[in-house]
Specification:
This protein is mostly helical. It has a single domain, classed as Up-down Bundle (Four Helix Bundle (Hemerythrin (Met), subunit A)). The chain is built from 7 helices and 2 strands, in the order H-H-H-H-H-E-E-H-H. The radius of gyration is 16 Å and the shape is globular. The chain starts with a helix and ends in an 8-residue tail after the last helix.
């Protein structure tokens, strides 16, 4: 796989899905729920609450971009306590992702992606993107969506997917 493919299968997908997540959170805000209760709600007791799901999704997207491009991953403090602050975090993440080009990913498939929680181990960049970054990102975005849906907000698959590139036959 070439670096252009690694780029195409990560950053544009992250940007699109983060746009969908913004829309889901916007609908949640318009639903009249108590924000603190919503942001701290979980699907199960041993899972992260909504606020952390959004934080981890954005961290995964920016971390992937940084690892695969060999650049410094910006640190975002996890201090959000409102939907507006989560919206701003998503915006900041998307702005960061948009600073990359296909050329930024030269050699991305061969990068040795390392993690502090897997000491002494690495994944080649392509495997990292396919086996970890993309699935982990989608897990947290889908879980955030599910928490919002669980709270009675009328969101559906179209909100989650955030549009399709359909063309006329």
């Amino acid at each position: 796989m070439n670096p252009e493919s690694v780029y195409e299968f990560t950053l544009p997908v992250f940007i699109k899905m983060l746009g969908g997540l913004k829309g889901v959170l916007k609908k949640a805000g318009e639903h009249g729920l108590d924000e603190a209760t919503l942001l701290n709600d979980k699907l199960a007791e041993d899972m992260f609450p909504l606020v952390k799901q959004v934080q981890v999704a954005t961290d995964n997207a920016k971390g992937c971009a940084a690892r695969l491009s060999g650049t410094e991953n910006p640190k975002f403090e996890d201090t959000e306590t409102t939907l507006a602050e989560l919206d701003a975090r998503i915006d900041k993440t998307v702005e960061y992702l948009k600073t990359f080009t296909k050329e930024s990913f030269a050699g991305a498939e061969q990068v040795q992606a390392t993690f502090p929680y897997f000491p002494g181990k690495f994944m080649p960049g392509f495997d990292y993107a396919r086996e970890y970054a993309i699935p982990n990102f989608f897990f947290h975005v889908a879980t955030a969506y599910a928490i919002v849906r669980k709270n009675g907000v009328q969101v559906g698959k179209a909100d989650y997917i955030n549009g399709l590139p359909l063309q006329d036959l």
